[in-house]
Structure formats: C-alpha cells, structure tokens
Design a protein that fits this description.
It is built from 14 helices and no strands. By secondary structure, it is mainly α. Helix 13 packs antiparallel against helix 14. The longest helix has 37 residues. The chain is globular and about 65 Å long. The protein starts with a helix and ends with a helix.
Length: 314
C-alpha cells in the first residue's frame, strides 16, 4: 500500500478524530486556516486552464436551487407547532443558503470531477450570496450594520481566498511554464494539505460548539440533526443533478453540498439567533466525514479498476 493510499484510507478520519480530541490546542491555529486553504487551492488550480473558468447554465440552476431550498425550508419549518420553531427555521435557512466552500474544487479534483465547473461556481456563488444573502437575512432577521457593510464582509471573507491562488496559478502558468509543470507534477500535495487543514477546521468547529451554552440539550440535538438532514438533502439533490447533466455524481454534488461554514456562522451571528449556528457547525463536521468517505471509496474503486485492467492484459 502506497503512502498516498494509506493517507486516503486512514489519514482523513485520523485528521477528523485529532480535530475532535485535540480541539483546544488546534483551535488556537484557526487564524492560519485561510492561508493553508489558499495554498491547497493553488495546487488544485494549477491543473486547469484560464479558458475553463466561465459561467455555465448549470451555475444559474444551482444558485436558484439553493435559494428555493433555503426559503422553502425556512417557511416549512417556521410554522410547525413546536417550541423554538423560528430558531430551527433559521438553522434550515442558513444550511441551504450558505455559500459553497472554497475548498470544494480540491475535493472535486480528488474525486475526479470537473475542477473548472466548481471553481467557476465558487466565484459566481460568492457574488450571488453577496447580493441575495444580506437581502434575505435582512428581511427575515435583525441585521447589525448596513447592507453595504454586510456585502463587503462576505466579499472580503470569500473572494480573496479563491482569487489569489487562482490568479497566482494562472500567472505562473503564463510566465513560468517550467515551474508550472513542476507544480502540476505534485498531484498529491492537495491531499496532504487537506489532511492538515481538516484537523484545524474540525477543531475550530468543535471549539465553537463547546463555547455555545445558550441552548437546552433538546434544542442542541435538534439543531445537530438539522445539520445532518440538510447535508444529506443537498448532496443527494446535487448528485442527482450531476448525473443528469454531467453523467457523473461528483461535480454538482460538491457544488451544492460542500459549504463555507465560517461565512455562514458569521451571517447567522449578524442577522439571526446565534444559537442557530450550531446547525452549521454540525453541518461542517458531517460534510467532512462524508467527503472523507467519498475519497476512500473513490480510491478503492480506482484500485479495483486498475487490478481488473492488469488481469485482462496479463
């Protein structure tokens, strides 16, 4: 078994476990998360060409789907005859409305999907959330600060993390082709960086949940379940759309299902009841567990296919 396969098999869940067990010391490193993420994206973006980054009809479909799920879920839960229905509705809203994670192209690359489609969607989804997010949450919640301030926060929080490594990768591709070829040859770099980053993200998420003491036990359990259910729904819908449009289940599944929890938690803290952000923290854990399972399954399937080819050629 190669080191790369060993890390895919055990390193991902080991990273999640480390983030949970050692969340206190690791959460101190949370300020470096954006820089580690940008480094990981740089290696991923080195695998695509500038001409691949463009809007596509599926991007508009994804944005509309996201908004419909968010508003539909909110109003469906809001009027249920249960205690804390408003808080649960806010949690559902944000689990659906949350922008796609900047790391989504990395996971898509590891799973053999279209990095270009997801990278384009990360940028377009960021721009759409800058406009629709504050408007929707300002309408439903109690905003802190002006609309322009909220838009600027989302813009500064998401767009540079994607654009800096993207432009750097394209600049090296244009000006330093030999260095670009060397970077492209380091195909496993994204995996190694992701394993490190995953432990920091999980630690930061667990630290946030541990600090949240506003809710009763039953409410916390329901909020965690909301994170799980909305995660399942979005990956399922995305994978079904991906099979229909692209003939594979990876690309649109990640675009719709993998979320930027830090931006979402900030939006909840700014506009809604802060306790609702527990669902988004739980969502982050569930999506990373699911991503790890996908990578392991994909790697094992590739190994089986390679063995089958060798047997047929022998």
């Amino acid at each position: 078994m190669t080191i790369q396969r060993l890390l895919k098999e055990y390193g991902l869940f080991g990273s999640i476990l480390l983030g949970i067990v050692a969340y206190r010391p690791l959460s101190v490193l949370s300020p470096v998360i954006p820089y580690v993420l940008m480094t990981m994206l740089f290696f991923t973006f080195s695998r695509i060409a500038p001409r691949d980054i463009r809007p596509r009809p599926i991007h508009l479909t994804l944005i509309v789907t996201q908004i419909v799920l968010a508003l539909g879920g909110y109003f469906l839960v809001r009027y249920l005859p249960v205690p804390y229905a408003e808080i649960y509705a806010q949690a559902v809203l944000m689990c659906f409305l949350c922008p796609v994670a900047a790391a989504a192209p990395v996971i898509v690359g590891l799973l053999g999907g279209s990095i270009a489609i997801v990278t384009s969607y990360v940028v377009l989804n960021c721009l759409s959330i800058i406009i629709t997010g504050p408007l929707i949450l300002g309408w439903l919640g109690h905003p802190q600060g002006t609309l322009l301030e909220s838009m600027a926060h989302v813009l500064v929080g998401v767009l540079p993390i994607v654009m800096i490594p993207l432009l750097t990768a394209f600049g090296i591709r244009w000006k330093l082709p030999s260095l670009h070829a060397r970077v492209r040859s380091l195909s496993s770099a994204s995996l190694y960086i992701w394993i490190f980053l995953l432990s920091l993200v999980i630690a930061n998420t667990v630290h946030f949940v541990a600090q949240e003491r506003q809710g009763v036990a039953t409410m916390i359990i329901v909020l965690v379940l909301i994170g799980l259910v909305t995660c399942i729904i979005q990956y399922s819908v995305g994978k079904a759309m991906s099979r229909r449009v692209l003939g594979e289940s990876v690309t649109i599944g990640q675009a719709l299902g993998q979320k930027n929890s830090s931006i979402s938690i900030w939006m909840i803290q700014s506009y809604l009841n802060p306790i609702a952000s527990v669902s988004q923290a739980a969502y982050s854990i569930f999506q990373n567990i699911f991503n790890a399972l996908q990578v392991i399954h994909h790697d094992r399937r590739q190994v089986r296919e390679q063995r089958s080819i060798h047997k047929e050629s022998a």
